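lol forgot to send this yesterday, sorry. struct tokens for the thing we talked abt
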């Protein structure tokens, strides 16, 4: 490959051209070209001075130039770099006086000459103008701050452009005065030396060394300078990457909208070889389609090729645009030495042929051309008529583009939008993306294209994903795969910032899916204008401020309103508008849903007739959601629906292109059922489809309905009826159960017993995909019938109770009151409505607040209606952020109501990681309607709710930990940032720390073990024996009721009680402990302890406890501090005296006793005595901590908690242990032992590995601050490890040995 540096600091031939057969070099950047390329790149120069503004307004200029271009062929100037090179300038010429001391070489920075040698630039402009140029380009090809960064002159960008425009404007004005012919200045905006569509790294195809936003800012700065300097026209030229040009046009459009009168825009691409493609891979037609939104006055080609090689491509461009065309080729192809040999006459003759054949409106020269070339060209085309642009091109077509064009016209078949690159629509794709395996996920995109997808839908709406990051990365990877990138993309998200992230990666013309009127016209118009500015087509959902349109008339009304707004107020091309009139779920078992398919098709017919140019699309998978898991049924429904919808005008749809059956190939029995369901011809259609699915499943047996189930117990019959949705006998069976008054003394017990057990099974089956939505609705109706039968008896019972108590106060007849709402910003409510139906059928009072419900309304209604539970629903990812907001507000307001989270976009992981930590009361993810009943019942059952919440809390903690452990790219704050975001307490307003009753230590010898009995937490004891009850019989003493382990648990417990009494009586076990208190102050992340309680603490500390601080980046929505234990102690500089406590306790004798049992071959009691010693040590720590809080330290003297509350940590203050999550470093124990002479005073020792002996021992520190809380330090960086080692005066290697499990980096 022959490499030529363009405008580099080392090249004496800068800004002439690039001849490449494999590589390009731009200043500061290297681009690999896929095919062998012979490529010339024109690089111009850059200026700044001060001169007059353009006098003509933008619209007058546009009209003026349009008239001229219709009258004659206009002439552009030639190569600026060519002329500069002829002057053989040296470094001092480029530096001038101003840049004499600049640290970098400036030779080759041609644009700088507009400041340092404006006389030369003026002279070159003048020569071209006198040679016959109507338009001259400013010397600003590389005058963006991005390109100028190579010279260290990025801050000069605005000045360079303004000065260059002023020099050009002066030259044009002077020559116009001299000749009497008006001349024009085109502000040249080159491509920069970076590319948005190609990675500069072979190893990282998703990497980019510039962002869309950075390019927009750079181009905006350049355009401002050009316009302020007087440019008449803006010329975006030498476009080798359409995405870069789109950034330039985005910036220009913003300036024209906000600050400047619009000016004419010229656009010129660069075809790199005879393949007819740009460097970034686009064909000429795809390039024109991608640029068309800017409505350029002229579009065409320049550079890279000579006129002969350029001809077929300029001809092709002319056929696909209504704009004028521009062509300014190089003076032939470069020779071996990078020079150009084509004579002015030869170049002129080629361009004259173009003119005579009606191909061009503006001609000129690029690399290698001189004033002589321009004079010859001007003379050659002077008598040639200009090209007459066509009045319309593909008038009734929607034009899209990837690397290649895609036209959707009146006779185009149904367009398949591939759905598998959607984290919400493909489990495989979601799993790969969540695991960070983007390269393999790319194979799914390729497969979709190979199977016939003509547009590729990309959706990253998953609560646990950083949507913008994921969208950017995947779209960048697609750009690196020509086989995928050839098709247009559909950027799909309910979060508009994610849509913008996707559009910033697309060089082609994409589709945006979607926007709607749900948040009002202002928001709708703002987003539509942004989409138009990106040059994309748009899908508009049939939503408005009142929610989702389900009826035909509402669909038409909303779409018509949106169409008029887009066309009249935004200037959208009607052919770029796609409506999605909402394909909604049918076959749910709810009658009002039966006509949803019909409504879609009827609305489609009217939309296509009444809204010219608009297309209709839809998400097909919604239709069959009721039959989730029955893929054969779903595919058949999709095939039948499309067969009819396409006839009615549906143009495109998001489908799995490889899984659509041919209408005529569908089994005839199944076909009829699908037809009946879609057209609502048979009220039993859903039932028949379910039965068909059960009978035709692979390996399944034909279902034969019998009444054998009637032979079971009444409980079994009720459960069966609920599971199967059989109403026939439910009243009869409910009465039979009610008659068994000994077993069910109250009607409520029947609801809580067999009926609720049945609903639990329904939930389990639905969650496992073995039951389907219509069946759940039927089950709910059976439940409603049974509850309805019992309500009069419950009312009688209520009246009798009131009479017996003498109270006439009304009591609530419902199980509970639940406020349901679709959160602000979301209009999807069908799933929520189904939940409401199911809950209502189960005797819950449901207050449905509808859609788009703001947080304050939800909370206000909950308080006013005395709600027991709040349920939040949402389908789109922005709803997840709103749910987090609601949880935070509930916490801020001190609310105590359980919070349920549901909806298609929600997940248990997102709830556990991002919502539950924001609210201290129960937050539960509810998978579906079938689960909601059981969850609500458990949350409102006084006997069950505490344990249920504990179970959920434990499960969510495991989910959180698992999530963080699997994060490959866990980000960390620097130690300084983490400290800045630590817990910063206003100690002056903080409750004044209480002084303990003594300073120093107090020993507790031979502690009375019977005092500890009530403090024992028995749950870990049963865990030792692997006896784990299932909810609601998990904890002690409920475990004894568990059907599986209850009996065995009772036996083990009785044996434990017997052995415990024996060892206490015989004094074979005994306990010693110690408590100590010291004056203490925090110093950074450490805590200094002092011998004397004197302020200020100026003496040397007697000990230091060293802290570790959380560093792993927390969720962006979290306001939680980055904790360190030192945060809970007043800083030394605060002047507030504070204190810290320490304790250690142990149960002695267990090892000896255990060995005795072993010698007697009694392994059971050998294990038992150790388990009991552990429980006694923990109980000792619990009881001693209570003494500390209420007496010895006395900071919580009014506390009144039972042992269960203590086990749930409902007290004030904490007692973290060294080696555990809040301080994972075991070496801190050595400080505790030395400080208190612990081994000498209690007999509790430390082994070499710093384990405590005896094994049944507990130690830790006491903190009294009401703000103190348990936390996990989590993973930390090497920076903190080194800092920690320095503070502890240990080697880094030694610290790494002790902190191995929490190192956030690989340690060899």
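and heres what i got for the seq, position by position
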């Amino acid at each position: 490959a022959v490499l030529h540096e363009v405008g580099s600091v080392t090249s004496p031939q800068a800004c002439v051209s690039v001849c490449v057969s494999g590589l390009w070099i731009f200043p500061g950047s290297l681009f690999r070209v896929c095919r062998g390329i012979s490529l010339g790149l024109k690089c111009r120069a850059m200026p700044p001075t001060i001169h007059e503004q353009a006098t003509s307004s933008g619209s007058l200029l546009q009209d003026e130039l349009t008239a001229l271009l219709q009258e004659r062929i206009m002439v552009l100037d030639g190569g600026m770099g060519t002329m500069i090179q002829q002057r053989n300038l040296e470094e001092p010429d480029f530096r001038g006086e101003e840049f004499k001391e600049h640290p970098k070489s400036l030779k080759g920075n041609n644009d700088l000459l507009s400041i340092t040698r404006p006389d030369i630039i003026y002279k070159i402009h003048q020569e071209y103008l006198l040679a016959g140029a109507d338009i001259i380009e400013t010397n600003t090809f590389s005058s963006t701050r991005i390109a100028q960064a190579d010279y260290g002159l990025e801050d000069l960008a605005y000045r360079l452009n303004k000065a260059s425009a002023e020099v050009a404007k002066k030259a044009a004005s002077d020559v116009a005065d001299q000749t009497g012919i008006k001349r024009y200045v085109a502000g040249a905006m080159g491509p920069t030396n970076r590319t948005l569509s190609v990675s500069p790294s072979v190893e990282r195809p998703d990497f980019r060394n510039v962002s869309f936003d950075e390019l927009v800012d750079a181009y905006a700065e350049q355009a401002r300078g050009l316009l302020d300097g007087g440019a008449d026209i803006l010329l975006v030229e030498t476009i080798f990457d359409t995405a870069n040009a789109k950034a330039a046009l985005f910036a220009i459009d913003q300036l024209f909208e906000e600050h400047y009168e619009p000016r004419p825009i010229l656009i010129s691409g660069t075809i790199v070889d005879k393949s007819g493609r740009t460097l970034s891979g686009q064909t000429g037609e795809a390039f024109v389609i991608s640029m068309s939104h800017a409505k350029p006055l002229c579009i065409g080609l320049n550079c890279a090729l000579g006129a002969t090689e350029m001809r077929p491509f300029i001809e092709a461009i002319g056929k696909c645009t209504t704009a004028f065309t521009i062509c300014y080729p190089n003076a032939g192809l470069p020779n071996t030495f990078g020079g150009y040999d084509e004579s002015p006459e030869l170049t002129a003759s080629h361009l004259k042929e173009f003119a005579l054949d009606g191909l061009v409106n503006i001609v000129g020269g690029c690399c290698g051309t001189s004033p002589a070339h321009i004079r010859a060209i001007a003379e050659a085309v002077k008598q040639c008529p200009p090209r007459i642009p066509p009045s319309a091109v593909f008038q009734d077509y929607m034009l899209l583009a990837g690397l290649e064009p895609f036209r959707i016209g009146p006779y185009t078949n149904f367009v398949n939008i591939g759905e598998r690159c959607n984290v919400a629509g493909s489990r495989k794709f979601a799993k790969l993306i969540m695991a960070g395996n983007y390269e393999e996920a790319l194979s799914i995109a390729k497969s979709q294209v190979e199977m016939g997808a003509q547009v590729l839908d990309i959706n990253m709406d998953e609560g646990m994903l950083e949507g913008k990051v994921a969208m950017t990365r995947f779209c960048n990877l697609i750009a690196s795969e020509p086989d995928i990138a050839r098709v247009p993309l559909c950027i799909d998200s309910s979060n508009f910032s994610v849509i913008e992230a996707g559009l910033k990666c697309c060089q082609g013309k994409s589709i945006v899916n979607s926007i709607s009127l749900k948040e009002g016209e202002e928001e709708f118009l703002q987003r539509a204008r942004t989409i138009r500015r990106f040059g994309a087509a748009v899908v508009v959902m049939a939503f408005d401020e009142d929610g989702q349109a389900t009826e035909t008339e509402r669909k038409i009304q909303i779409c018509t309103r949106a169409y008029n707004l887009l066309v009249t107020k935004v200037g959208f091309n009607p052919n770029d508008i796609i409506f999605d009139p909402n394909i909604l779920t049918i076959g749910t078992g709810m009658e009002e849903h039966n006509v949803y398919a019909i409504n879609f098709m009827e609305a489609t017919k009217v939309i296509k007739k009444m809204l010219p140019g608009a297309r209709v699309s839809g998400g097909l998978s919604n239709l069959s959601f009721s039959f989730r898991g029955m893929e054969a049924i779903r595919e058949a429904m999709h095939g039948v629906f499309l067969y009819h919808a396409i006839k009615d005008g549906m143009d495109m749809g998001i489908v799995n292109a490889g899984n659509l059956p041919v209408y005529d190939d569908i089994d005839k029995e199944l076909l009829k059922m699908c037809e009946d369901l879609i057209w609502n011809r048979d009220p039993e259609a859903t039932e028949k489809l379910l039965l068909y699915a059960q009978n035709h499943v692979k390996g399944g047996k034909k279902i034969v309905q019998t009444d054998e189930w009637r032979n079971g117990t009444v409980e079994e019959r009720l459960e069966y009826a609920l599971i199967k949705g059989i109403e026939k006998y439910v009243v009869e069976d409910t009465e039979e159960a009610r008659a068994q008054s000994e077993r069910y003394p109250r009607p409520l017990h029947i609801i809580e017993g067999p009926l609720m057990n049945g609903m639990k099974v329904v939930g389990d089956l639905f969650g496992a995909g073995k039951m389907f939505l219509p069946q759940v609705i039927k089950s709910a109706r059976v439940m409603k019938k049974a509850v309805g039968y019992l309500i009069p008896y419950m009312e009688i019972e209520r009246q009798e109770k009131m009479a017996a108590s003498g109270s006439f106060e009304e009591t609530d007849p419902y199980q509970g009151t639940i406020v349901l709402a679709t959160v602000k910003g979301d209009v999807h409510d069908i799933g929520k409505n189904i939940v409401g139906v199911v809950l209502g059928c189960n005797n819950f009072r449901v207050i449905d607040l509808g859609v788009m419900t703001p947080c304050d309304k939800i909370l206000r209604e909950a308080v006013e209606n005395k709600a027991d539970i709040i349920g939040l629903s949402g389908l789109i990812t922005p709803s997840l952020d709103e749910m987090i907001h609601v949880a935070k507000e509930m916490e801020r307001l001190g609310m105590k109501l359980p919070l349920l989270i549901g909806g298609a976009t929600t997940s248990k992981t997102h709830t556990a990681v991002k919502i539950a930590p924001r609210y201290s009361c129960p937050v539960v993810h509810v998978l579906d309607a079938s689960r909601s009943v059981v969850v609500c019942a458990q949350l409102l059952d006084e006997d069950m709710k505490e344990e249920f919440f504990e179970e959920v809390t434990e499960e969510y903690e495991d989910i959180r930990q698992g999530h963080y452990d699997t994060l490959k790219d866990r980000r960390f704050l620097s130690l300084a940032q983490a400290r800045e975001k630590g817990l910063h307490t206003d100690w002056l307003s903080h409750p004044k720390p209480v002084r303990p009753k003594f300073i120093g230590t107090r020993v507790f010898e031979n502690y009375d073990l019977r005092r500890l009995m009530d403090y024992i937490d028995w749950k870990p004891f049963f865990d030792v024996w692997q006896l784990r009850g299932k909810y609601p019989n998990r904890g002690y003493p409920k475990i004894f009721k568990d059907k599986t382990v209850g009996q065995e648990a009772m036996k083990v417990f009785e044996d434990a009680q017997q052995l415990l009494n024996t060892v206490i009586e015989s004094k074979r076990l005994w306990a010693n402990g110690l408590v100590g208190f010291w004056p203490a102050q925090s110093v950074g992340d450490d805590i200094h302890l002092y011998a004397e309680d004197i302020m200020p603490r100026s003496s040397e500390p007697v000990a230091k406890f060293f802290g570790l601080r959380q560093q792993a980046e927390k969720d962006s929505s979290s306001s939680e501090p980055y904790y360190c234990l030192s945060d809970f102690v007043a800083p030394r500089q605060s002047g507030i005296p504070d204190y810290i406590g320490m304790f250690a306790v142990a149960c002695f004798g267990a090892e000896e006793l255990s060995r005795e049992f072993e010698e007697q071959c009694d392994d059971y009691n050998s294990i038992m005595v150790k388990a009991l010693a552990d429980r006694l040590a923990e109980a000792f720590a619990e009881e001693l901590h209570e003494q500390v809080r209420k007496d010895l330290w006395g900071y919580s003297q009014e506390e009144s908690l039972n042992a269960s509350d203590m086990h749930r940590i409902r007290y004030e203050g904490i007692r973290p242990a060294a080696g555990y999550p809040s301080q994972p470093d075991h070496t801190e124990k050595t400080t505790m032992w030395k400080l208190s002479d612990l081994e000498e005073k209690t007999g509790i020792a430390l082994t070499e590995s710093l384990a405590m002996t005896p094994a049944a021992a507990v130690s830790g520190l006491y903190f009294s601050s009401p703000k103190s809380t348990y936390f996990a330090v989590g993973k930390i960086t090497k920076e903190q490890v080194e800092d920690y080692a320095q503070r502890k005066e240990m080697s880094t290697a030694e610290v790494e040995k002790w902190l191995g499990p929490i190192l956030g980096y690989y340690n060899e």
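The two ends are 43 Å apart (CA to CA). anyway ping me if u want another try
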